[in-house]
What we know:
By secondary structure, the protein is an alpha+beta fold. It contains 5 helices and 21 strands. The chain has helices spanning 11-32, 131-136, 148-162, 309-312, 337-341; strands at 40-43, 63-68, 71-76, 82-88, 93-99, 102-107, 111-116, 121-127, 163-166, 173-178, 181-186, 192-196, 202-204, 210-211, 216-223, 229-237, 244-248, 253-256, 261-265, 273-276, 281-282. The longest helix has 22 residues, at 11-32.
Amino acid sequence: MSWKPPRVLTPRSILPALAVMLVLAAGAAAHANKPVPFGDRVAGPADADATPVNSQSLSSADLDLKVVGPGLEAYHKQTGERAWTYRREGAEALYLAMAGDNAIVVWDDGLVTSVRPGDHEVRWHRAVPGLADYLRADGEPGADKRTDAQRKDTAKQRAAAALHTVQRAGSPWLAVVTPNLTMGLRDADGDLRYNDRPSNGCLYDPLRTVHTDYAVLIPRTCTNGSGVAVSGGITGYRLDSNGWSMITGPAATVKVLDLSRVEITDGPIVPPKVFDTKAAAPETACSSVDAPFAAVRPQSGCADPSASPTAAVPAAPATPAAPSAPATDQAAPGTDQAAAQQ
């Protein structure tokens, strides 16, 4: 059996082991000082890390939510006291909308987040490509002449136009719209359900976009090679079924009538059209030949010609007039006989 003397560790042989130890130590230090994902900072009234105290008794109905300063703040409705604040390092909150019981926030860096108000938990984050550029409006005509206040106002206006929450019963969802992209997200977990881009030569118009409790309707404008508007359209998006698309003029407008219906106006020549986003079909006018077979009829209903009183009830035959009695024979019914003789 061979025997070898113990190996002497020279400075050169120690270097690899030291390097490994330094890497492990650096990794441990980085893990210990790991920043909160996406720079989230949720704090209570005393600016300490908030904890879900009494979260079982709180809900969105108990709180007033406001975009204040750089973030989101929640206040107790009964007392007016601040319940918690939500900030993100290096970002500013621009707009807030509710999806069911949850708060959806648009940030100036193009991030969209969901917060559960009752226990102030940040539920999910989604980055939307191109959203930050759209909010900043950099490079657009007149952008270099805007003041800081005007830039903030523009960003807030565009954030409100970009975010649309659909309060579908039991399963709300949201759409984020920019000129070059729209995305549909499920509120339950922030899952991306669809993304779509306009066809070549076309742009979505977030400022004309509307939503109902069933769908988001996004107008688009299209131009030819010379930059002249040639056509347009409206695309409807839903999460529970296929969407639809219709061709319109370049400046068609959409007005929400109720929870499911919208009115589409396409210039002075074409009459306005009512579209039902729940049935995914237009209302058929009563005078149309398709009215008896229409999927959606006007809410006021269409009168049935066969039920017209004039057509249904024949005219009563004329009855002969009763002969008139002489004035001296008898008094009119109900009068005193003596008075009649006077």
